[in-house]
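Weekly puzzle thread! Below is a chain. First person to post its structure in C-alpha cell form gets bragging rights.
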Amino acid sequence: MEALVTESEPRVEPAATADHGNAPPSQGAAPAFDASPSVDARPPEETPPLAIASTFAEMRLKVGDQVSLEPRHRIAGGRATVKVLGWLEGVSLMVTIPQNTAGRVFLQEDEQVLMRAFTGKSAFAFRTAVLRAAYQPFQYLHIGFPVEVERVQIRNSFRFRVNLPASIVLAGKPGRPGSIVNIGTTGALIETPEAIDTDASSIRVTTSFELHGAPVSLDLGVTVRIAKSESLGHGMPRHLYGVEFEDLKPNDRLVLGSLLWYHMHEHPGSAV
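Winning reply:
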C-alpha cells in the first residue's frame, strides 16, 4: 500500500516526561471495536475473535511508532496516520499532525477520534478527543490519554480471502501478473498463470487497492514455502504459492493489520 505517512513534519522532542498542565484525560466512550458476534456456520475455532478489554501499557507503543487515526466525520483521503512523540500517563498522548493521501488533516480541539495500533499479533483501538492542536513553531497534537482500550488477537493462521490483483517481481525483473488469493499478517496464498522461479534470489509481491476509501499499496518481500500446480481444464494451468513475508516495513504492518481488521469485522465470512 503506498506510504500512508509522509515525512514532512518537523521533529518534536518526546513528551513522555513533559508537564501538560491540567489537560483532562479522555472520558469513557463507546466501544472502539464492533464486538457484535456474527452468525456463522464455520467451526468455533474459525470464528473471528471478539474484542477484549486491554490497557495502554499492553499496546507497548514506542516513540516513533505509527498509529492510525480516524476522525468521527469522513475526510478526504480516508484514514490518516500519526507518529507517537510521547505521553504523560493519565494525562495525554502527543503525536504528529495526521496525514493521509490527501495531505495534512486539520482537527479541532475536543474533536473525537478513533485510534488504532497494531503490535505483535494484536490489534488495539481506543476512542479519545483532541486536547490541543499546535502548528507553530512545531506541529503536533495532544490527545486524551486512553481510559478504555480494546484488543483483538490476530492469529498467525488467521487469513481472509481477498482476491487482489498483484505483480510478482523476481530478482529485479519485470513484474509478472498474479493475484493474492488470501492474506494474513505473516503470509499469503499467491496464484499465477505462469510458474515462477521459487529459487530466485529475491521475490517481491506488490498490490494496490482501496481501504476505507483511501488508495493504499503493499510491497512485500516473500519466501515461497509451498508450491502447487494444477490444471483448470482446457489445458489452462494454475500455479499456487504459499508465501511467508520477510522484513515487513512498519507501514506494511499497519496496512496488513488494518486490512485484516476490516475483513474480521466487516466480512467475517471471508475467513479461511
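Puzzle host: Confirmed. Bonus trivia for everyone else. Helices lie at 56-59, 250-266.
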